[in-house]
Design goal:
Number of domains: 2
Radius of gyration: 23 Å
Shape: globular
Structural class: alpha+beta
Keywords: Signal
CATH topology of the largest domain: Beta-lactamase
CATH architecture of the largest domain: 3-Layer(aba) Sandwich
Organism: Aurantiacibacter marinus
Protein name: Beta-lactamase
InterPro entries: AmpC-like (IPR050491), Beta-lactam-related (IPR001466), Beta-lactam/transpept-like (IPR012338), Peptidase_S12_Pab87-rel_C (IPR021860)
Number of strands: 21
CATH superfamily of the largest domain: DD-peptidase/beta-lactamase superfamily
Distance between the termini: 65 Å
Length: about 525
């Protein structure tokens, strides 16, 4: 294992740092715990407190200190309505934590001389294009990995999220139609589609699929043998968690619709599944500077430094900044790097339908922390930073109590907003649309997303989002030319306003936006510019 002194030296190379959710304790439904050493932190208690704060269905956590896994815990139910418990060997989707595996795969190819970080993407994908011709010519591999493209947050995710049917070639074809919201390389806005492009670079350069390359070159040599590079590679019968969503204000999570499972197109952006303990192997690989437990160097020291070198300034997480724990943050190549209580922190979060995970390394203290919950709530990052704070920071900061209370307040606000929007006033007749319903019926086209269709049914207008079966549903009139789409699966918390554009009494197009601020950013309805098309 690399020494703290070496990490101190390494941290100096990652300069300009900076980076990247007591009540009575609820008892877990079931638990399986392994404690090899006995640090001052009572990990079981902190997991239970976190689960109570977020009303979690289930949770796993693991902690490594000085190269030894000192804790593995599994609590609660793997699936609501069953007696199947979460276990320490259970596979959880790590979602966007997978991005660091993609950048590490690219680093291997850089070491081999097959690609260069600052080479234009068109060198490897000639048809690659963005909105602006100059940007298209100069957009590099590094640009694709550091969220500085100029695109808005989550741009184009509806191609794949929640159950979109896009292939990598569809993503590449859509990119030139996505309008930037800031200047190229001028700011940070998280994206997923450019990591799909990065995975395509791995495939075209190596001649292997992204999943084959990552399995052979990273997962297997590191010792992450029970991890799967994407869902269709999980062995039959392997213990697999079920994600849960819940409508705003609902008491219990509902198992996610199987159609929400990530398609292989997501793989390079967020497709890996792992048990908690094997994420400790990933952490140790980084503590040892890119060397496996059996001494095999997978990436050079230069590339290990390159991957963790901050590139794009971020705002520190609000709760950390408010507590005085963090002040600087940068996004590196697939990693977030930031200060935490005066020390270097390296990590990433991940969100898949019904599951949230978080991975954190404090290299100067040789600490690795991973946790995941099978609810789409911020329990994982809350647990990780609370434990990190107890180990190296100021234990008087109660992140579980503080952040859990903030989450509960946001949930209450979102539930109230959705209820208020859905309620029909008791007094007087409901307002009528500005035009007869037939005037809104037809096909609407967006150049990056494709077609959206409005039809008239016995129950009123119906919206068909074409790429997504889950985002099909009845429209409820709100006012004037505004309707609301209350999707059949209310646990998505993605209900949207639909506003029709009318010129001289004719409907010419429509726009959409999420009703609640609880809606995940990947429901990027607001980026759609749908124009009526002739049929």
């Amino acid at each position: 294992m690399i020494s703290i002194a070496k990490w101190g030296s390494f941290a100096a190379l990652v300069t300009g740092l900076g980076a990247c959710a007591h009540a009575p304790v609820a008892q877990p439904v079931d638990s399986a715990t392994t404690i090899i050493a006995a640090p001052a932190v009572n990990f079981d208690v902190e997991v239970a407190r976190t689960m109570a704060a977020y009303d979690s269905t289930g949770m796993v956590a693991a902690v490594m200190i000085d190269g030894e896994t000192v804790y593995e815990g599994a609590f609660g139910l793997a699936e609501e309505g069953t007696d199947r418990p979460v276990t320490t060997d259970m596979l959880f989707p790590i979602a966007s934590i997978s991005k660091a595996f993609t950048t590490t795969a690219l680093a291997i190819l850089v070491d081999r001389g097959d690609i260069e970080w600052d080479e234009p993407i068109r060198t490897y994908i000639p048809e690659f294009s963005m909105w602006d011709p100059w940007v298209s010519e100069n957009f590099t591999v590094r640009d694709a990995l550091t969220h500085r493209s100029g695109l808005p947050l989550g741009a184009g995710d509806l191609l794949i999220w929640p159950d979109g049917d896009a292939e990598p070639e569809d993503v590449i074809a859509a990119l030139p139609h996505l309008r930037p919201s800031t200047g190229f390389r001028s700011g940070y806005a998280y994206d997923n589609l450019l990591y799909v492009v990065a995975g395509e670079i791995v495939e075209r350069v190596s001649g292997q699929s992204w999943a084959d390359f990552v399995t052979a070159e990273l997962l297997s040599p590191i010792g992450m043998d029970n991890c799967a590079a994407q869902r269709d590679r999980i062995p039959e019968g392997a213990p697999l968690v079920t994600g849960h969503e819940r409508a705003a204000g609902a008491d219990d999570g509902v198992p996610t619709d199987p159609r929400l499972n990530f398609s292989p197109t997501w793989s390079a952006a967020g497709g890996i599944y792992c048990p908690a303990g094997e994420m400790m192997e990933w952490g140790k690989f980084w503590l040892d500077g890119g060397v496996t437990a059996d001494g095999q160097r997978l990436i050079s020291q230069n590339q290990a430094r390159e991957l963790l070198q901050g590139v794009t300034p971020q705002s520190p997480r609000g709760g950390l900044q408010a507590s005085g724990s963090s002040n600087l943050a940068l996004y590196a190549l697939g990693w977030s790097v930031h200060d935490f209580e005066g020390t270097l922190a390296v990590g990433h979060g991940g969100g898949a339908p019904g599951v949230v995970s978080n991975f954190l390394i404090l290299p100067e203290h040789s600490i690795v922390i991973f946790s995941a919950t099978n609810d789409y709530r911020g329990a994982a990052s809350t647990f990780n930073y609370h434990v990190a704070n107890e180990l190296v920071g100021r234990p008087e900061n109660d992140f579980i109590g503080d952040w859990g209370a903030q989450f509960a307040a946001a949930e209450a606000r979102g539930a109230a907003l959705i209820t208020a929007t859905a309620d029909t006033p008791d007094e007087g007749p409901a307002p009528s649309p500005s035009l007869p319903l037939a005037a809104y019926v037809g096909a609407y086209q967006d150049p990056w997303y494709g077609e959206v269709r409005i039809s008239d049914t016995a129950e009123g207008l119906f919206i068909d989002m074409s790429r997504s079966e889950i985002l099909d549903g009845q429209l409820t009139h709100v006012d004037g030319n505004r309707f609301a789409a209350f999707w059949p699966d209310s646990s998505l918390k993605a209900d949207a306003f639909v506003d029709f554009s009318v010129v001289d009494g004719q409907v010419t197009g429509m726009t959409m936006r999420a009703i609640s601020d609880l809606t995940d950013f990947s429901y990027d309805f607001h980026d759609l510019q749908l124009e009526r098309i002739a049929e």
